[in-house]
């Protein structure tokens, strides 16, 4: 789940702090390599439990709302996995997904963005913010939806800053926010704009 995974290696309980089944599967692969290289169970458990998320990779920011900052990279598979994880997460408040362009996809870019857009529109999100020309274009060509969607095609700092008023109206205490896009979109710029994070709104300092 969102808080990580507890599991057993050779009768020794361990905990992986990184969220989601996809990170658990990565851990299993690492365990297989570690065993092949001759590490004992205690060393492997220690290695798993010392794991910490790097910037923009499965980071969970806890405060007045919960934020999943997973914006170091993105493709169809990682976008789908992140949305699925958030779909399965129970929250007290609303779910807001901030999803940006996936870069370097070549000729298949438009098709992949349409697939991700449709997946997002079928998700458990109460509000969706699409960021970037490709994902906003995909939304324009999508089927009609009752979801509340806000598009930001221009990814300049000024355009991102202009979304602050909308975010303040939408996001409240106990809400859940997912940020997911390719690194070039720099979705971390949204963090200081979120009302549950900004110190002037009683949030946390990140």
Summarize the structure.
This protein has 206 residues and is of the alpha/beta class.
Structure explained in plain terms:
The chain has 206 residues and is an alpha/beta fold. It is 34% helix and 19% strand. It has seven helices and eight strands. It has helices at 21-36, 41-49, 76-87, 109-121, 133-140, 157-162, 164-170; strands at residues 5-9, 12-16, 59-62, 66-70, 95-100, 127-131, 148-152, 176-180. The protein has a six-stranded mixed beta sheet with strand order 3-4-8-5-6-7. The radius of gyration is 18 Å and the shape is globular. Residues 198-206 have low confidence and may be disordered.
Give the arrangement of secondary structure elements:
Blueprint: E1 5-9, E2 12-16, H1 21-36, H2 41-49, E3 59-62, E4 66-70, H3 76-87, E5 95-100, H4 109-121, E6 127-131, H5 133-140, E7 148-152, H6 157-162, H7 164-170, E8 176-180
Strand content: 15-25%
SSE pattern: EEHHEEHEHEHEHHE
Give the overall shape.
globular
End-to-end CA span: 23 Å
The overall pLDDT, averaged over residues, is: 90
- Measured as a percent range, the helix fraction is 25-40%
Low-confidence stretches: 198-206
What's the main sheet like? 6 strands, mixed
């Amino acid at each position: 789940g969102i808080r990580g995974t507890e599991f057993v290696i050779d009768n020794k309980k361990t905990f992986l702090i990184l969220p989601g089944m996809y990170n658990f599967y990565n851990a299993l692969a690492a365990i297989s390599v570690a065993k092949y290289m001759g590490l004992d169970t205690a060393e492997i458990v220690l290695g798993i439990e010392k794991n910490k998320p790097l910037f923009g990779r499965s980071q969970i920011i806890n405060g007045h709302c919960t934020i999943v900052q997973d914006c170091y990279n993105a493709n169809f598979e990682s976008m789908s996995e992140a949305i699925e994880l958030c779909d399965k997460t129970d929250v007290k408040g609303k779910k807001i997904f901030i999803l940006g362009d996936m870069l370097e996809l070549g000729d298949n870019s438009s098709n992949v963005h349409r697939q991700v857009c449709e997946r997002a529109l079928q998700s458990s999100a109460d509000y969706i913010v699409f960021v970037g020309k490709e994902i906003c274009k995909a939304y324009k060509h999508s089927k009609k939806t009752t979801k509340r969607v806000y598009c930001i095609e221009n990814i300049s700092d000024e355009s991102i800053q202009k979304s602050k008023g909308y975010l303040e109206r939408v996001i409240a205490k106990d809400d859940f926010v997912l940020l997911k896009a390719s690194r070039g979109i720099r979705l971390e710029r949204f963090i200081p704009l979120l009302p549950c994070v900004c110190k002037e709104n009683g949030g946390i300092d990140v």
